[in-house]
Amino acid sequence: MKKILLGLLLCLVGNLSFAQLRVYNDMASGAPVMKDAFTGINGDHFFHDFAEGIIIHSKKDSAQNMQVRLNAHDHRLEYLKQGEVFSYGAKDIRGFIVNENGRNTYYTSEYVIPHLKDKAFTKVLAEGDEYKLLEFKHKVIVDDPNATYGAAAKKAFSDRVSHFIVKDDEVKQLSNRNKQLKEVFGDDYDKVKEIQKNSGLNLKDPDHLRVVVNFLNEEK
């Protein structure tokens, strides 16, 4: 899988307009399903607009040169086809690669997110023989904190992010608590604390987490 991903290159970011109606691909019937877009909710349910990407259907099959974006509220990958918008859920495909800020980023749908009890698209931040670091970034609808006092209740999208460690195909959520870190890293816990102390790393920072996971994988 790593060799395949290294061979997949993206070079162009597209910014395309889209209609107020979203079209989803009904995997059971193959017919497009029309669904009203979110109205009256401040913010956006996407982290970026359409960009060039690769949809990975299996280890051998992929659709390249696609315009894709991740619906971070519904947990679906949307893509353009003949001017219409279709989508895949995490159970429909293996993952995708998308150009984010000039960098090719790999999302996998291989794992079940513990608090969702279902598969979702997660960004792969680091990967090795022992550990894999995943980021699950999504959006939820909350009361709008910027709404005028006394006005009718308004809603807004709010970002949420969590990180997970995969070891021996088991997915565990990360936190800064020592007890939880010990449960996640097991025998490598002392190494993690030593790296954190000597390098002044903040384990809430995904870049710092990537350093720790890459170090542990290189030692194996």
Description of the structure:
The protein has 220 residues and is of the alpha+beta class. The protein has helices at residues 2-7, 178-185, 189-199, 206-219, and strands spanning 21-25, 32-36, 41-42, 51-56, 62-71, 76-81, 84-89, 95-100, 103-108, 112-113, 118-119, 122-127, 132-143, 155-167, 170-173. Strands 3, 4, 5, 6, 7, 8, 9, 12, 13, 14 and 15 form an eleven-stranded mixed sheet that branches. The longest helix is centred in the C-terminal third of the chain and has 14 residues, at 206-219. It is globular. Mean pLDDT is 82; it is low at 1-31.
Overview in brief:
With 220 residues, this protein is of the alpha+beta class.
Topology at a glance:
Layout: H1 2-7, E1 21-25, E2 32-36, E3 41-42, E4 51-56, E5 62-71, E6 76-81, E7 84-89, E8 95-100, E9 103-108, E10 112-113, E11 118-119, E12 122-127, E13 132-143, E14 155-167, E15 170-173, H2 178-185, H3 189-199, H4 206-219
Parallel strand pairs: 3-14
Antiparallel strand pairs: 1-2, 4-5, 4-8, 5-6, 6-7, 8-9, 9-12, 10-11, 12-13, 13-14, 14-15
List keywords for this structure.
220 residues; alpha+beta; eleven-stranded mixed sheet; two-stranded antiparallel sheet; 41% strand; disordered N terminus
